[in-house]
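Customer ticket, subject: "Can you confirm the structure for (Perigord truffle) hypothetical protein?"

Message body: Hello, I'm evaluating your service for our small team and ran a test protein. I'd like someone to confirm that this is what the system normally returns, since I don't have a reference to compare against.
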Amino acid sequence: MSLLKPPKLVASTGTTYNCTVAETSARELSVQKWSGLGNPHESNLFKSAQWSPDGTCVLSNSEDNILRTFVLPVDLLDPSDAPKSLTPYSQTASAEPVSCLAIYPSMSLADPATCCFLKSTRDHPIHLHDLLVSNTRASYPLINPQTEKYLSPQSMLFTPKDANKFIAGATSQISFFDLQRPGEGPYLDLKTIPTRRSVQTGETMKGVVSALAIDNGVLAAGTLSRQVGLYDDCGSGSTIGVFTVDGEGGGITQLLWSKCGRYLHVVERKSDVISVYDVRVAGEKVESLEGRMAQTNQRIGVDIAYSLEGEVVSGGIGGMVSVWGTGGKGEKGFEWKAHDDVVSGVAIHPGGVVMATCSGTRKLSSLGEDSDDDESSEERKWDNGLMIWAI
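Agent reply: Thanks for trying us out. I re-ran your input and got the following:
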């Protein structure tokens, strides 16, 4: 298995979602009602996709604020003349656009009790949902004590040493929750800066905590103001250091540890570069993975093939998927045309056998009910899809 050779498409949603939000809602109304938020005439793009920890499902987030669970067919890799069709097993509607998701790390399709995920939205508590049915199990409030308003986490992850603990990043704050205490707020809050008016130092950072990642007990937290903080003991210990990301970008959207745990990959909006830092010396940039094609405010997903050789994989605005091999000195090792629109997300299967990509970008439909002109037809050629590729 290798990510440095052409993959084979084995499953796809096809053209099912190459339509507007309103058209999807009209077709699936009996299954799951659209929340009604946003522009109904916009393209129903896929914003992100992520694998369940057991590798049996893909959870996607779309423009219509509906989270769809796709259970992969058992004969996915059997020889076939055409890609298998992907249809959602379950759908969960959100009252607001989803800020971030986190699937329960001990999830197993054979045990429905473990099939759940966390969801964060604006002006609501964090919710724990079923992955296989449309059901809310629990909620966890994160409230500003001064204003009594809900804080909306922009990043979440479960802790590796305890699957029932999770971490949420909000504005200048990292909060720690216990999954087994439904209805309760965080048991610990880490303020990344003492007060809003405090002067920043080498151990403080200010801004929305938009990305979180843990490896070897070190919590890395990135902000939309382009700072990265490193914290000991999975975030509950001391501050190791804070540094500002080099170069230009529109704010950190992802942090990923290298396979060896020594390097931290920093992903930003409006940046064609993935910056790599040596965490032994906070702030020392050692490499730039170039050519990502991500000069857009839209989040473009990145993943690392931990189950393979640690290759770095990214989507791009040109429909291309780029791959950087380990020790590639910043040069792309391979790329291929995966979609006819922005590749908004890439996700490597936990076992490294297949990978998922999703696509789409915001486009308005100006097509009237009686219009059939060529220009309108061109505007309708969207690619909002989820694809599975054999590596």
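A couple of notes from the result: Residues 367-379 have pLDDT under 50 and may be disordered. The CA atoms of residues 122 and 194 lie 24 Å apart. Feel free to reply with more questions.
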